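Consider the following assembly input.
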Amino acid sequence: MITIEAKNVNCYFGDFHVLKNISFDVDKNNVVALIGPSGCGKSTFLRLFNRMNDHMEGVKIGGEILIDNMNIYDTSVCVEDLRKKVGMVFNMPNPFPKSIFENIAFGLKIKGYRDKAFIENRVVELLEMVSLWNEVKSKLKKPASVLNLGQQQRLCLARALSVEPEILLMDEPSAMLDPISTAKIEEIIHELKPFYTIVIVTHSMHQAARISDKTAFFNLGELVEFDTTTTIFTNPKNLITQNYITGRYG
Amino acid sequence: MGYSNQNLQSIKPSKGSYFPLIKGVSLFLMFVFVAFILFVIIKGVAAFDWNLLLVDTRNSDQRFNFISALLGTCYLLIVSFIISVPVGLLGGFYYSGFFSNNKYLSYLKMLNRILSGVPSIIFGMFGMVIFVNRLGFGYSILAGSITLSLIAIPHVIKSTEEAIRSVDKTYIESSMALGASKIHTAIHVILPIAFPKILSGFFFTMARISGETAPLILTTATYMVTQLPASVFEPVVAIPHHVFLLARNGVENVQTLDLLYALSLVLLVIAVVVNIIVVVFKWRELNKK
């Protein structure tokens, strides 16, 4: 079942043609990795799915992006509701300068929950989902900045999950993390896979190979090749993809 | 190991030939400043009398009353604060471009800059014509406070805008990505983070307007008032205004002169204390990270 469908998407920042005529679809409960050299437009593409590019200056978007068969750039779409459905984790761990508890309760309150006991239970559940509960249960009231970067990123992941999204967008979630923290994030992605559709931008091809079902290779604003991860990494059809995968280009 | 002392000295940057001039001017200014402070302190301490501060003479007919002046300043600042906080906050948010960023904003910012440079006596005249006479507030706390707020507002909008702009964009982005509305983000993310800076901006501006005299002469009272005001529609005399009214008596009157010195000392102490509070506030904010 197709969850995200992009049809002939073009994107401009002023005169700069960032994304060129991209068509792309993601099946439900799949993990799709977007790879490609820096500045190829993969992050911009990712940010189209929750309309985070709307705030950029001089942005123009053409084509259609459908999520569950609804055009998300339609004027009738409520951006706030869309973003609750399509969560996002950024490359730099950026918990709010609030307590660990408050960071997650923030999302629950946005979702509309007011009952204190419910929020307290849900915070524990969410922290368990990102395997952070055992590490932070004694310091829930401490500011999130006492955590290390890997823990902060997992906290951000729990915060993103708190608004009950169906799709998770991850923009290089382990770019700032050490290998052990990265492994933990990847483990969590595996655990989340049955419940969420995940699109992840990554610079690490090993990561893409480890966690994704399908991989899309971007170059200079074009979607060069999009296929199952196995095919991309063992038998790419395009020469540029092959050169990038093998490290001869990029 | 071939470095001699001379070699080490030779890498010192050249001070240039203008250096003695700069040094001279700086020393001269320092001397004037120190002399001024010492003058106020020596004369002030000599003339200082605790009765001036502590004895409640509000209901006597003694004309020189410090308590009423101090309370007058407090009333004016409190009402000005109440008026300028909402305007400053909303204006600061608007100017930061967070809610909407349109082409009028740069014109508005230019107007704001011009407004913050207007001499305060102009605001005083405006206040006298509009609030005192046209709106019928009379010479009163209300007329004076609104006039002071008008002087404060361009400054608090500017400082609030800067405080809001200094909030890390990633916090705003992650709040918006969770599906929070702009209002929710403003109240629950931006405001708590920018709060210390916003508050120190407000304090700084309040300290500034507490020294304003010209607009008060035209809006709060025309004569020495020692009665405590019963409402915001009654006249009041603030400390700088008090100094002005005393000084008008001239320097021949020795008693008045002594009072002036004492008052100046008190004003100086208040200014130093307020500034220390602001500095401590900023220092704490810097060291929180």
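The interface with chain A takes residues 168, 170-171, 173-181, 184, 188-189, 192-193 of chain B (CB under 8 Å). Ask yourself how this observation constrains the way the partners meet.
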